[in-house]
């Protein structure tokens, strides 16, 4: 500004001098012209210098930028030229991360280099007087960038290569570790102790094999693919990779072979134990069946041999013979068990888990069975002899029992029917005599009944419960004999009653005979008693006018008669009750004490001096019997002893008339 204002002052002064003076005007003007020229030249020179200085400044800035980038490139060249490519995966991964950071930074710096070069090219385009230097700098910078890029690419390749190798080795280590673990799993001699444990081991083995197959598709396939990839890329460590992979595959194939061998042994063990299992089950099944057969046979053979007839012992002996015939089948079963036991023991296994039966126990059972069979045969022979003796005893009993029963039937028929012939032609006394004689014969036959009872006792002692030769028993025959004896006594008493009634009451012998004949006529079953319907028919036949009533309708007149002859309504009227009723109807007007005594004597069996409670109720109405029992004194014998249920009718009658 000072030079400019000074130059302007010079110009203004020269112009003023030129305008004010004429002297020296040309020279002033000439000098002014020169001054202007010189000023212009100075200005041009100053401008040119300023331009060069500006270009130099820009150049220096360019150089500074180039140097800065070159310094960074030189620094990074040292980094990428390092021979440290990492010896572990962690180290290589760290180096790769650093390299990635470098490449990121490098990208930024390449952009900066491009900017610096572009700036230099702009300076060249502006004709910067440092053009040659700028061109050299740009070329040098770009060369260094290219060198760094190549060096970085080489380091990256080596890092990747080393990473791939370490990655391969790491994966190979993992695979070898897995193989080693599985190899240890196969280092066992446990092939099971029975079928169940073998099948459990087989299941584990199948799971193990499935794991091998899965690993082959993943681990082995991956490491092989990685190996192929590295070899295809011509990895610097290709030979080492091939050697490592070959060693790995050798161990893998050996693992597969060991697994297959173990599975084969397990399958063989399974087949072995399956045979043993089948033998165990077959033995257990047959042993159980054999033992059940033996228990049933033992129960039958030890069952007490107690028969009731020859037929039963014959059936038992036939059954025993059939059993002996079946022993051949049992012997065959026993031999099969022995063979099964031999086969089982040949396998040298533990005891049979399916049964507690052993062959030794079964052999003892078989020996015991032979012993029981012999004992059974002796018992059957003994029982055969006993039954033969029992059958003889049955026949002897039947012979006497049948004969005795025949005599009872004939005697009963004689008493109830045979005496009719006597009745028609003889007197009551002759009938009584014949009846007494027959009763003596009945009493004499008691000895024959005793013999039958002795035979029956012998049969009971021999436990003979039935007799096919007769339907009669000692109890039945004894009851029939007792009934026959009572019938004889009743017949005697009835005849004595009729004789007494004839002699004391005026009832004729013909009337008594008619009463007796009519009773026997209606006694169809010869039981010595009439049911109510037979009794009613008998009364009508004797002239009693009883009304005809429908069945189920009340019959008070007949009921009044039954109150006398059957007060307890047992449904029957005995000959004694019947005759007492008929005689009482014929002697309703008895007046003297002798007649009353005779009437009581007629009620009493065998004309005893007393009458029993039973006889009173059988022959009198309930009111009459109750009256007599309440007023009669108990009967005392000659020694002053009171007889049970016996009443003194003589003392009662005399006291009645005395009163």
From TrEMBL:
EF-hand domain residues: 510-545, 553-588
Alphabetical GO biological process terms: actin filament capping
GO molecular function: actin binding; calcium ion binding
Cellular-component GO terms for this entry: cytoplasm; cytoskeleton
CDD domains attached to this UniProt entry: EFh, SPEC
Family note: Belongs to the spectrin family.
Xref: InterPro entries: EF-hand-dom_pair (IPR011992), EF-hand_Ca_insen (IPR014837), EF_Hand_1_Ca_BS (IPR018247), EF_hand_dom (IPR002048), Spectrin/alpha-actinin (IPR018159), Spectrin_repeat (IPR002017)
Location(s), subcellular: Cytoplasm, Cytoskeleton
Species, as recorded: Mauremys mutica (yellowpond turtle)
Domain of life, source organism: Eukaryota
Main subcellular location of this protein, as a coarse class: cytoplasm
Coiled-coil ranges per UniProt: 359-391
Protein's name according to its UniProt entry: EF-hand domain-containing protein
Keywords per UniProt: Actin capping, Actin-binding, Calcium, Coiled coil, Cytoplasm, Cytoskeleton, Metal-binding, Phosphoprotein, Repeat
Pfam family, one: Spectrin
């Amino acid at each position: 500004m000072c030079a400019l204002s000074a130059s302007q002052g010079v110009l203004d002064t020269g112009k003023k001098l030129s305008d004010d003076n004429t002297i020296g005007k040309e020279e002033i003007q000439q000098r002014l012209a020169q001054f202007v020229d010189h000023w212009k030249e100075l200005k041009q020179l100053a401008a040119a210098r300023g331009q060069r200085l500006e270009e130099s400044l820009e150049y220096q800035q360019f150089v500074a930028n180039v140097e800065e980038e070159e310094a960074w490139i030189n620094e990074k060249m040292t980094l990428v030229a390092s021979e440290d490519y990492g010896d572990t995966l962690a180290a290589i991964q760290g180096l790769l991360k650093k390299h990635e950071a470098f490449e990121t930074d490098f990208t930024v710096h390449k952009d900066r280099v491009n900017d610096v070069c572009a700036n230099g090219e702009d300076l060249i385009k502006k004709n910067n007087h440092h053009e040659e230097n700028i061109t050299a700098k740009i070329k040098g910078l770009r060369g260094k960038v290219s060198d760094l890029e190549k060096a970085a690419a080489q380091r990256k390749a080596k890092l990747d290569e080393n990473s791939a190798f370490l990655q391969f080795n790491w994966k190979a280590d993992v695979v070898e570790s897995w193989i080693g673990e599985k190899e240890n799993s196969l280092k066992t001699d446990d092939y099971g102790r029975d079928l169940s444990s073998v099948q459990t081991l087989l299941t584990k083995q199948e799971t193990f094999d499935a794991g091998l197959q899965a690993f082959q598709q993943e681990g082995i396939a991956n490491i092989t693919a990685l190996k192929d990839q590295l070899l295809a890329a011509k990895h610097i460590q290709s030979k080492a990779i091939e050697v490592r992979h070959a060693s790995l595959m050798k161990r893998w194939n050996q693992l597969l072979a060991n697994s297959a061998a173990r599975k084969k042994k397990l399958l063989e063990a399974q087949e072995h134990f399956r045979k043993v299992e089948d033998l165990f089950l077959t033995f257990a099944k047959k042993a159980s069946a054999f033992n059940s057969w033996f228990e049933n046979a033992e129960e039958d053979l030890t069952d007490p041999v107690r028969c009731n007839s020859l037929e039963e012992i014959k059936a038992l002996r036939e059954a025993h013979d059939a059993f002996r015939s079946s022993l051949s089948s049992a012997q065959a079963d026993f031999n099969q068990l022995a063979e099964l036991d031999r086969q089982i023991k040949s396998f040298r296994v533990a005891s049979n888990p399916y049964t507690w039966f052993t062959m030794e126990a079964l052999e003892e059972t078989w020996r015991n069975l032979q012993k029981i069979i012999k004992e059974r045969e002796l018992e059957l022979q003994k029982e055969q002899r006993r039954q033969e003796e029992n059958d003889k005893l049955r026949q002897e009993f039947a012979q006497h029992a049948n004969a005795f029963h025949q005599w009872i039937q004939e005697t009963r028929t004689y008493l109830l029917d045979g005496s009719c012939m006597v009745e028609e032609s003889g007197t009551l006394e002759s009938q009584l005599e014949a009846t007494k004689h027959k009763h003596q014969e009945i009493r004499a036959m008691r000895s024959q009944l005793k013999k039958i009872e002795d035979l029956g006792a012998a049969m009971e002692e021999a436990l003979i419960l039935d007799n096919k030769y007769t339907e009669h028993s000692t109890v039945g025959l004894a009851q029939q004999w007792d009934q026959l004896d009572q019938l004889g006594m009743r017949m005697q008493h009835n005849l004595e009653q009729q004789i007494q009634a004839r002699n004391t009451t005026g009832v004729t012998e013909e009337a008594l005979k008619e009463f007796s004949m009519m009773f026997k006529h209606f006694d169809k079953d010869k039981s010595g008693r009439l049911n109510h319907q037979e009794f009613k028919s008998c009364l009508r036949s004797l002239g009693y006018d009883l009304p005809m009533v429908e069945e189920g309708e009340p019959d008070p007149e007949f009921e009044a008669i039954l109150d006398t002859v059957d007060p307890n309504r047992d449904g029957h009227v005995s000959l004694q009750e019947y005759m007492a009723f008929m005689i009482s109807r014929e002697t309703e007007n008895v007046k003297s004490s002798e007649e009353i005594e005779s009437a009581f004597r007629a009620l009493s069996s065998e004309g005893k001096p007393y009458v029993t409670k039973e006889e009173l109720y059988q022959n009198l109405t309930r009111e009459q019997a109750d009256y007599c029992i309440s007023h009669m004194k108990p009967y005392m014998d000659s020694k002053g002893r009171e007889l049970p249920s016996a009443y003194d009718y003589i003392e009662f009658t005399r006291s009645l008339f005395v009163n």
